[in-house]
Amino acid sequence: MNTLKEKLVVLRRDFHKYAEAGWTEFRTSSKIADRLETLGYDVLVGKEVINTEAVMGRMDEEKIQRHIERALCQGADQKWIDRMEGYTGVVGIVDTKIPGPTTALRFDIDSNDAIEMEEDHHRPYREGFSSVNKGAMHACGHDGHAAIGLGVAEALMEIKDQLKGKIKLIFQPAEEGVRGAKAMVEKGIVDDVDNFLAAHIGFGYPIGTVVAKPSGFLCTTKANVFYKGKGSHAGGAPNEGKNALLAASSAVMNLYAIPRHNDGATRINVGRLQAGVGRNVIAPNAFMEIETRGSSDEINQYMYNQAHRILEHSAKMYDVDYKIEKVGEAVACPSDDELVEEIIKESQKLKSVLNVEKEVYFGGSEDATWLMKRVQEKGGKSAYMLLGTTIAAPHHNECFDFDEDILETGVFLFGNLIKKLNGI
Ligand SMILES: [Zn+2]
Ligand SMILES: [Zn+2]
Which of the listed residues 61, 87, 207, 367 has the most CB atoms within 10 Å of its CB? Predict the structure, then answer.
């Protein structure tokens, strides 16, 4: 019989090897669903947990189909694939029917769009579990999150007779690019939840450190921008063209010139700009991936409105057509202090936790905030924590890897918090 730690490492490495990016986690979802069902959970998958109207940043059906086929080749079960109906994500529920609160944990399961380093100094490659799916790599630790989730699932079933209330284990797709959580919220997945917890591993904190209240999550909007002009001969008929490259370049310069806001932090980024077809052609097309952020919904909205105005008028200035497509969005949502207190207490009880940071400014974005906010709106409590683990390279880097000891600590901490919150 393997120890818990060994089991978690096997799970994490399996998810790592078969990395699947947002909205394509078919094999990952199938494996999770299978395990949860075996353990005795009521399992919901795909369309049963996703409101398709609220889905953001999903690729076209043809690509989805190709990913489904790949997942089947890599061990996904046809039964689950059929039930998913083209959408990923899993929720495992245990309803004891004994009075008690409903507690939900959220684990994100998607990988990044990254090409994993294939050199011996990178442990996943050296030890044979680097991604076999070129262009998809777990470079943020969500493979670890999924493993922790299944570890908690098993640990809870070992004390099934003592459980009270209802427990929901949410395995969320497409966190990267903040695309997936809103669709689960809009399906009502957390509408009955009294306590909601989520965590991220790593983020610069070493193994042994827990940050009980990372604060300052930024609201964010992600958008794709398309400019369509008209190609023409750059020497013979430049006047007949409509230059989408110029429109886009002008927009980029002006996006960064949006005035900062007195009420709080703002961010703007154009992470990608592609334009044109060749040296002597007036560029007929341009494509940009942009994002705005703000320390509150209002400030992010201010940034997005300003960005929208600039994108629109840059297009008009150069007489090109434009289309702006929202592909991701997250809100700001502070943790409830009552839950933070429980996190501090339970962390301090664990031998593997040496240092508990109470409140630390974080400043990133996370779409768990959609779930947190809905729980709070319905009268429940929610919190988010960071579980430090030593990392080999920054998050999203092609050499990302982490100290797997955090997996067991994660299971203990979530497990103990559920016991505490559900009065066991
Ligand atoms: Zn990430
Ligand atoms: Zn992440």
Answer: 367
Instruction: Residue 138: count other Cβ atoms within 10 Å of its Cβ.
Output: 33
Residues around the ion ligand 1 (C-beta < 5 A): 140
The CB-side HSE value for 411 (13 A sphere, CA atoms) comes to 25
Please tell me the total count of domains within the chain.
2
Alpha carbon separation from 366 to 119, 184, 297, 330 (Å, rounded): 31, 14, 14, 6
Ligand positioned closest to the Cα atom of 139: 1
- Ligand 1 centre and the CA of 394: distance in Å? 10
Please say which residue of 307, 330, 353 terminates a domain.
330
* pLDDT score at 25: 98
Same domain, 121 and 268: no
Instruction: Quote the domain boundaries for residue 392.
Output: 4-215+333-421
- Report percent pLDDT > 90 for the chain: 97
What pLDDT score was predicted for residue 2? 76
Question: What predicted TM-score, i.e. pTM, was given to this entire model?
Answer: 0.94
Q: Which of 63, 102, 44, 46 is nearest to 378 (CA)?
A: 102
Question: Measured between alpha carbons, how far is 224 from 246 in angstroms, rounded to an integer?
Answer: 17
Distance from Cα 36 to the centre of ligand 1, integer Å? 25
Contact 247, 227 (CB under 8 A): yes
Distance 200 CA to ligand 2 centre (A): 6
Compute, in angstroms, the gap from residue 396 CA to the centroid of ligand 1.
Answer: 6
